Amino acid sequence: GILADEMGLGKTIQCIALMAMMLERKVMGPFLVVAPLSTLPNWISEFKRFTPEVSVLLYHGTQPERAKVLKQIRRPQGPLGMCPVVVTSFEISMIDRKFLQRIQWKYLIVDEGHRIKNLNCRLVRELKTLPTDNKLLLTGTPLQNNLAELWSLLNYL
């Protein structure tokens, strides 16, 4: 789906609430959030603030650091015994696509979804290869210039 609320209306919080609800319904993940590098600290802090019981892993840093995190993704963790929510950047999702493809994600959330408005860009191609049961795009601007951009978002879904 597409969550296209305007900036400042709480798209991040709505996604966190969605994952918390899924956990209540025994959907134990793993979940993947792909976002701009500048927003990763915000995603981590919002999870800790609103759902401290949810296990969240930052998948970023050097290749050896990411390899350590990768080993933890399929392991049940925390008080809920869940697979974690993994938060990563667009760039790392493309660099480590082959590793991330090995995991069947319950939910793939793409923050700033308008970044994939070009159907032929590398990011779209790479994200399409990730196996997931559900996809959600977050964007305050689903339609910026023309209908082709909206078509690209819908086609990704």
UniProtKB/TrEMBL annotation:
<dbReference type="GO" id="GO:0046651">
    <property type="term" value="P:lymphocyte proliferation"/>
</dbReference>
<dbReference type="InterPro" id="IPR000330">
    <property type="entry name" value="SNF2_N"/>
</dbReference>
<dbReference type="GO" id="GO:0003682">
    <property type="term" value="F:chromatin binding"/>
</dbReference>
<dbReference type="Pfam" id="PF00176">
    <property type="entry name" value="SNF2-rel_dom"/>
</dbReference>
<dbReference type="InterPro" id="IPR027417">
    <property type="entry name" value="P-loop_NTPase"/>
</dbReference>
<protein>
    <submittedName>
        <fullName>Helicase, lymphoid-specific</fullName>
    </submittedName>
</protein>
<dbReference type="GO" id="GO:0004386">
    <property type="term" value="F:helicase activity"/>
</dbReference>
<keyword id="KW-0067">ATP-binding</keyword>
<dbReference type="GO" id="GO:0005524">
    <property type="term" value="F:ATP binding"/>
</dbReference>
<dbReference type="InterPro" id="IPR038718">
    <property type="entry name" value="SNF2-like_sf"/>
</dbReference>
<keyword id="KW-0547">Nucleotide-binding</keyword>
<keyword id="KW-0378">Hydrolase</keyword>
<keyword id="KW-0347">Helicase</keyword>
<dbReference type="GO" id="GO:0006346">
    <property type="term" value="P:DNA methylation-dependent constitutive heterochromatin formation"/>
</dbReference>
<feature type="domain" description="Helicase ATP-binding">
    <location>
        <begin position="1"/>
        <end position="157"/>
    </location>
</feature>
<dbReference type="InterPro" id="IPR014001">
    <property type="entry name" value="Helicase_ATP-bd"/>
</dbReference>
<dbReference type="GO" id="GO:0005721">
    <property type="term" value="C:pericentric heterochromatin"/>
</dbReference>
<dbReference type="GO" id="GO:0044027">
    <property type="term" value="P:negative regulation of gene expression via chromosomal CpG island methylation"/>
</dbReference>
<dbReference type="GO" id="GO:0031508">
    <property type="term" value="P:pericentric heterochromatin formation"/>
</dbReference>
<dbReference type="GO" id="GO:0005634">
    <property type="term" value="C:nucleus"/>
</dbReference>
